[in-house]
Amino acid sequence: MSRHLLNEIEKLKTRILDLSTVVEEAVFRAVTAFQERDAAAAQAVVDADTEIDLAEVDIEEECQKILALHQPVAHDLRFIIAILKINAELERIGDAAVNIAERVNLLAHEEQVRIPFDFLGMARKAQDMLRESLEALIKLDSRRAVQVIKEDDQVDQMNGQVYSIIEEGIRNDPAHVESYIHLLGVSRHIERIADHASNIAEDVIYLVEGRIVRHRTGICTNDEMPK
């Protein structure tokens, strides 16, 4: 690898990690705003989304420039491809944080309804998955990435529980149907954050091992595969 290409890749690593930090913070702030029904904090998440969008475009353009000027091969090429995909996933997670914040803005102006479900626990699970997927990227740890993918089913199940609870709530309390729908939207966007974290983990496995594991069951690392 040329010294110039090495420098470009190192700068790209720094930029994707910087973006991941901003996105993780946006998710945390959106979830906190939901927990506290804080419309002002929620609006701050919406207003800050432009920073994520611009960073995503800059990183994509940088990847395209490296591909055009250096024509990387083997692991370097996989790295650029993985970063392009992870970059897009991070931007979508930022969008999900905005969607949660927008629901908070609506919920803040409606009579609060309570349902027997731990939204904060679900959100923390999705946040943990995001954090672990990014740690897997930093440390090039495919085992950690596999664990993130396995945990996605738990968040899917939680989202299914919310749907059932909301359905019953609407039947028993139709006067607050809009609030219930907003709560369902929050759950759905938390579930989407977990999905994107799982996608990042899949991209880490591709980067480390050169394997595409999307849509496959029984995922394991190369050294866990049957001999």
CATH class: Mainly Alpha
| CATH topology descriptor | Methane Monooxygenase Hydroxylase, Chain G, domain 1
User: What integer is the average pLDDT?
Assistant: 92
Report, as a whole number of angstroms, the end-to-end distance. Answer: 33 Å
SSE succession:
HHHHHHH
Count of distinct structural domains: 1
Portion of residues in beta strands equals: under 5%
Instruction: Label the CATH architecture.
Output: Up-down Bundle
What does the radius of gyration come to? 19 Å
What is the global morphology? Answer: elongated
- Structural class, by secondary structure, is mainly alpha
> How many helices does DSSP assign?
7
The description of the largest β-sheet is: none
How is the secondary structure organized here?
Blueprint: H1 3-36, H2 39-47, H3 49-70, H4 74-107, H5 119-139, H6 142-172, H7 177-209
Helix pairs in contact: 1-2, 1-3, 1-4, 1-5, 2-4, 3-4, 4-7, 5-6, 5-7, 6-7
What can you see in these coordinates?
- The structure is a single chain.
- With 227 residues, this protein is an all-alpha fold.
- The protein has a single domain, classed as Up-down Bundle (Methane Monooxygenase Hydroxylase, Chain G, domain 1), CATH 1.20.58.220.
- It is 81% helix and 0% strand.
- It has seven helices and no strands.
- Helix 3 packs antiparallel against helix 4, helix 5 runs antiparallel to helix 6 and helix 5 runs parallel beside helix 7.
- The protein is elongated, with a radius of gyration of 19 Å.
- The two termini are 33 Å apart.
